[in-house]
């Protein structure tokens, strides 16, 4: 299990002593956290804690991963050890920083980490109290990480996969961005030639919570046809919402898909081919 409901969160909070992570992105992330968050939830910033920005997004995209050892030190600051139960949520229904934190912690080799389905909205709907109190840190020693243990690929790998009928490249951005009708963030509109579009928000029900594991499995098994999940590459704009689909795949029991961290923000800045429309 990788995804929990707000009711399951209540049970964990009552019966365990989890490390609760409030993960957010955007320039006003800390301000939003300060307005309301779960009691004892520790703030994690997508832009500074879950990324190591470079001056050139053509190398690694807009949200490159930090070095594993740096992330290990950060986990120690948060008080997370290999035996910790960790619960993470965001205010984007788990589609943004929470999914990225989940992927990174799994890639560090951690076992017990759960994303709250529906995020902060579902927590409020379930009647769980929020606070403005800042959580106290109980730092530990550095979390031991020996490299990222979840598969990643680079642009050359993606180009090969997109041209291979036994492989699949999934672009999880909204359909209009895939089509190239407009591009609100990156410099070029369009998509990687050969990539298929399965928007991340199609993993959700109408109420903004994740579909059931069975429904997710049926959806992606149909999309994959006979392909091995290990031959699947997932990308988005900058390697963040792609983790939402990787989380959905894990919940569906389909393991082994790779993350293209640089995603469209890298690809579109490197002079590589660009497709538009339904190509």
TrEMBL record:
InterPro entries in UniProt: Rhodanese-like_dom (IPR001763), Rhodanese-like_dom_sf (IPR036873), TST/MPST-like (IPR045078)
Identification of the protein by name: Sulfurtransferase
GO MF terms, alphabetically ordered: thiosulfate-cyanide sulfurtransferase activity
EC number: 2.8.1.-
Domain Rhodanese: 14-132, 163-276
Residue ranges crossing the lipid bilayer per the database entry: none
Keyword S-adenosyl-L-methionine (UniProt): no
CDD domains listed in its UniProt record: TST_Repeat_1, TST_Repeat_2
Keywords: Repeat, Transferase
């Amino acid at each position: 299990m990788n995804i929990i409901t707000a009711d399951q969160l209540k049970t964990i909070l009552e019966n365990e002593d989890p490390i609760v992570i409030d993960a957010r992105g955007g320039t006003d992330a800390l301000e939003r956290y300060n307005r309301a968050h779960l009691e004892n939830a520790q703030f994690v910033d997508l832009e500074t804690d879950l990324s190591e920005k470079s001056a050139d997004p053509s190398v690694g995209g807009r949200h490159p991963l930090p070095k594993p050892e740096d992330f290990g030190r950060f986990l120690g600051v948060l008080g997370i050890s290999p035996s910790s139960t960790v619960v993470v949520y965001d205010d984007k229904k788990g589609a943004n920083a929470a999914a990225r934190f989940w992927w990174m912690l799994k890639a560090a080799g951690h076992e017990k980490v759960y994303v709250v389905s529906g995020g902060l909205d579902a927590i409020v709907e379930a009647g769980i109290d929020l606070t403005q109190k800042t959580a106290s840190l109980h730092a530990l020693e550095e979390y031991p990480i020996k490299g990222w243990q979840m598969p990643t690929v680079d642009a050359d790998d993606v180009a090969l996969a997109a041209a291979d009928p036994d492989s699949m490249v999934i672009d999880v951005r909204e359909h209009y961005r895939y089509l190239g009708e407009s591009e609100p963030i990156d410099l070029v509109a369009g998509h990687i030639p050969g990539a298929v579009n399965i928007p991340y928000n199609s993993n959700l029900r109408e109420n903004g919570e994740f579909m059931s594991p069975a429904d997710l499995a049926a959806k992606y098994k149909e999309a994959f046809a006979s392909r091995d999940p290990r031959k699947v590459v997932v990308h988005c704009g900058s390697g963040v919402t792609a983790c939402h689909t990787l989380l959905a795949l894990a919940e569906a029991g389909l393991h082994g898909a790779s993350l293209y961290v640089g995603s469209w923000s890298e690809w579109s800045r490197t002079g590589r081919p660009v497709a538009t429309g339904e190509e």
